[in-house]
Design a protein that fits this description.
- InterPro entries: HicB-like, TA_system_antitoxin, TTHA1013/TTHA0281-like.
- The structure is a single chain.
- A hairpin with a 5-residue loop joins strand 1 and strand 2.
- The chain contains one helix and three strands.
- The chain has about 80 residues and is α+β, with helices and mostly antiparallel strands.
């Protein structure tokens, strides 16, 4: 008997920046509208991780495709 191993959650590129209210804001460019925030950097990243999971679950429940993370980071 083979036991299925839990799959690691795929990583997504995010934008993390300070908001006007002093909180950290985090956006996921590959998941439109997936935005969160937190009082600290760590809290913001934990919150967006949960938001990503829920966002993808909703897409899957609806039978919609999950967009690939095709964001390219370029400095200009």
């Amino acid at each position: 008997m083979t036991v299925a191993k839990p799959q690691a959650k795929p990583k997504r590129k995010v934008l993390l920046y300070p908001g006007e209210d002093g909180y950290f804001v985090v956006e996921v460019p590959s998941l439109p509208g997936c935005i969160s925030q937190g009082k600290t950097r760590q809290e913001a990243l934990a919150n967006i991780s949960e938001a990503i999971t829920l966002y993808i679950e909703v897409l899957q429940d609806r039978g919609e495709p999950v967009p690939d993370d095709t964001v390219e980071v370029v400095l200009v």
